[in-house]
Amino acid sequence: MTPVALTIAGSxxxxxxxxxxxxxxxxxxxxxxxxxITALTAQNTTGVSGIHPVPASFVTAQIDAVFxxxxxxxxxxxxxxQAETIVAIAGALQRWAPRHIVLDPVMVxxxxxxxxxAEAVDALKTMLFPLASLITPNLPExxxxxxxxxxxxxxxxxxxGRQLLAMGCRAVLVKGGHGHGTESIDYLIxxxxxxxxxxxxxxxxxxxxxxxxxxxxxxxxxxxxxxxETAVRNAKAWITDAIAAADRFAVGHGHGPVHHFxxxx
Length: 265
Fold this sequence. Notes:
Blueprint: E1 4-12, H1 18-28, E2 32-44, E3 47-53, H2 56-67, E4 74-77, H3 83-96, E5 101-103, H4 121-128, E6 134-135, H5 139-146, H6 154-165, E7 171-174, E8 183-190, E9 194-200, H7 210-223, H8 228-244
Parallel strand pairs: 1-2, 1-4, 4-5, 5-6
Antiparallel strand pairs: 2-3, 7-8, 8-9
Helix pairs in contact: 1-7, 2-3, 3-4, 5-6, 7-8
C-alpha cells in the first residue's frame, strides 16, 4: 500500500517552507503527500509581508476530505496561526485518530517574523500537545513555550524537554540548530530516555524551511512504518544532506531553501 502523509500547515508563496516544503519532503522520501492549508502567507527568502488565515471551518473541511478518502499513515502539523484553527484541528484529529502526529510548533519564521498569534500559544499547548506523538521545537521555541531562558547545557535541554513531555506529548525532539559549536545536536526525549543526535554544523545562509522539512521527513518515516527513533535518525541524516546541498541553488536574496531533492540532482 502506498504510504500517505498529511501536512496541516501554512502556504509559503516562495516555496521554501510550509506546505510546499512538506510536500517536497514527502515526495523526496517516497511518501504520497496531502495537505490542509491553515493560512496563506505572502513571503519570500527575506521575510513575511502578509498572513491571510483560512477560516477554521474550511480547515476542518480539508482535513475531513482527506481522511474520508485517503489512508493517512501520519500527520504533520506546522503553522496553525490562530486559536480558532487550533480548535478545529484538534477536533478533526480527535475524530479521525491518526496513529502518528508530528507537531512542529512554528512560532517564528527563519526571517524572524512571528507566525503564531501570542494568544494562541496556550491553545497549542493544551489542545495539540496531548495529541502529538512527537513535537519538534528548536531551542528558542522551547524557551518561549516555557517562558524560560534558552537552554545552554545538555542538562538544561533535557530538563526543558521533560517539562514539555509533562504537557501530554509522547516524545520531544529539541532541535539544536540554533546552538553553537561544530556540531548541531538534537535531543530526542521520551518517558524513558534522552538520545543525543549529532551532525556536523553546516555553514550556510540557506536554511529556509529547515524545521518544516525535518518534521515532515519524520512524519514520512512514520507513515512508512518506521519506529520513532529510526524515523528521527533517518530524517536528521536526510535534512543534514539537504542543508549541505543548499548552496547548489541560487534562489532569492535572503535565506534560501534547502535542497529537498539532493539525491536526484
